């Protein structure tokens, strides 16, 4: 069964039209973005539009990108306020929005992949968070109108103010979200919280620890840039959190939310299992693998017997519960009260001894 990350790169699902990639100061997601562009170019009958706002086009391929399969719109040299070719602020922003949407509309018929390498830079150029979100919503609507496995790929930083808007189901009911984490974060969880990644720990326990800590991005930055850190996240290998929300599978069934952790290895040039990462092999080499065994019996080796025989269990099950109203029909909203032994519940007038 292919991994979620491999399926995301190959884009085997025709119902996921939005892909978000999230980098941070501690770990870049650029190698995954580069692989997405590479595989999009290799798919037959598919056109790719790459909007470069942060990275140069050469960052996505060591050789020249094939012009017949990909259209590159390079905006890295266009800096508002410093570019001589820029018009006034009043004309520049509508011109940028119009160029982006017209480029998508004029793409050849067939499946289409639209990649924007930095929505943060795009938002900075436009100068408005709401206008940027509206522009991306219009771009997503144009992508959805396309046939086949068309999608919009957006890359942003972890603290981007756009992410709370792009993550909403109102923006897109279905979503694939890839977040890059340094492998040092998993080592830290294993040593400080005794919670290594699955299958070394139960899923519920691990995600309960991992999610709140990973959302505090300063934790990862402290591990990477603090004392003993490497000074930067490794582009050679890191951990990718894959979150898939909504959509429909190949059998036509509605899907819920899936969340997994997978590794990324530059040596392999593809996703991999976590235990294949060199930086995480210490977790497995220290015999941290938890074998599925029955829990030890706490009643063993005791000087007295805590267990019941079959006859004792049968007799115990036949003892009626001390509840006076058990099995009796009750009116809706009735107040049930079991009298205590000290309660005086006779029908006589409690004040009959008073001379009133």
UniProtKB/TrEMBL annotation:
Region annotation Disordered: where it falls in the sequence: 315-356
Primary location recorded for the protein, binned into one broad class: cytoplasm
GO cellular component: cytosol; elongator holoenzyme complex; nucleus
Pathway: tRNA modification; 5-methoxycarbonylmethyl-2-thiouridine-tRNA biosynthesis
One annotated GO molecular function: tRNA binding
Family to which this protein belongs: Belongs to the ELP5 family.
Signal peptide (residue range): none
Organism (species): Ganoderma sinense ZZ0214-1
Top-rank taxon, per record: Eukaryota
Ranges annotated as biased composition (Acidic residues): 340-356
Protein name: Elongator complex protein 5
Subcellular compartments: Cytoplasm; Nucleus
Single biological process term from Gene Ontology: tRNA wobble uridine modification
Entry-linked Pfam families: Elong_Iki1
Keywords: Cytoplasm, Nucleus, tRNA processing
């Amino acid at each position: 069964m292919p991994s979620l990350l491999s399926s995301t790169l190959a884009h085997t699902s025709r119902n996921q039209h939005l892909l978000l990639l999230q980098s941070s100061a501690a770990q870049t997601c650029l190698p995954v973005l580069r692989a997405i562009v590479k595989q999009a170019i290799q798919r037959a009958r598919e056109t790719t539009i790459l909007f470069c706002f942060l990275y140069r086009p050469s960052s996505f391929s060591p050789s020249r990108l094939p012009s017949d399969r990909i259209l590159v719109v390079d905006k890295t040299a266009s800096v508002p306020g410093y570019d001589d070719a820029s018009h006034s602020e009043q004309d520049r922003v509508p011109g940028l929005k119009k160029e982006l949407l017209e480029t998508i509309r004029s793409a050849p018929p067939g499946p289409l992949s639209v990649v924007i390498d930095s929505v943060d830079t795009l938002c900075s150029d436009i100068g408005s968070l709401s206008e940027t979100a509206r522009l991306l919503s219009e771009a997503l609507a144009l992508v959805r109108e396309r046939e086949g496995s068309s999608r919009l790929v957006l890359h942003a930083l972890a603290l981007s103010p756009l992410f709370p808007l792009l993550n909403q189901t109102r923006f897109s009911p279905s979503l694939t979200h890839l977040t890059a984490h340094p492998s040092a974060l998993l080592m830290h969880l294993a040593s400080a919280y005794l919670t290594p990644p699955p299958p070394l720990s139960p899923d519920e326990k691990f995600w309960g620890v991992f999610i709140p800590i990973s959302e505090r991005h300063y934790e990862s930055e402290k591990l990477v840039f603090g004392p003993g850190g490497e000074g930067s996240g490794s582009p050679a290998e890191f951990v990718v959190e894959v979150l898939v929300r909504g959509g429909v599978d190949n059998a036509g069934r509605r899907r819920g939310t899936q969340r997994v952790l997978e590794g990324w290895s530059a040596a392999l040039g593809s996703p991999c299992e976590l235990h294949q990462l060199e930086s995480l092999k210490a977790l497995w080499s220290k015999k941290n693998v938890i074998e599925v065994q029955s829990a030890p019996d706490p009643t063993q080796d005791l000087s007295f017997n805590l267990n019941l025989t079959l006859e004792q269990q049968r007799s115990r099950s036949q003892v009626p519960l001390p509840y006076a109203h058990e099995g009796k029909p009750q009116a809706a909203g009735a107040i049930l009260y079991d009298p205590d032994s000290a309660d005086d519940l006779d029908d006589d007038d409690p004040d009959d001894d008073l001379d009133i």
